[in-house]
Design a protein that fits this description.
Blueprint lengths: L2 E2 L6 E2 L4 E3 L2 E3 L1 H7 L1 H7 L4 E3 L22
Antiparallel strand pairs: 1-2, 3-4, 3-5
């Protein structure tokens, strides 16, 4: 599921902070000072639960004269 930052509209993999129900990306949250507010648990700003993203390992490229086994 693709998320979009509530402040700038850029697509992101994972939200850093939630303002109510709206996700905010890590760069925008840092620039707006929301990370410090989330740590203090002030108002509607909360730290988003970060989940590990499972990604497939990148395939290994073969050398110029290497033969695939």
């Amino acid at each position: 599921m693709k998320h979009y930052c509530a402040l700038c509209g850029r697509p992101m993999l994972d939200a850093a902070v939630m303002i109510g129900q709206l996700p905010v990306g890590p760069v925008c949250a840092r620039r707006a000072g929301l990370l410090q507010l989330a740590k203090k648990r002030a108002g509607l700003v909360k730290v988003a639960h970060r989940h590990a993203i499972a990604r497939a390992p990148a395939p290994r490229n073969l050398g110029l004269f290497e033969v695939a086994a």
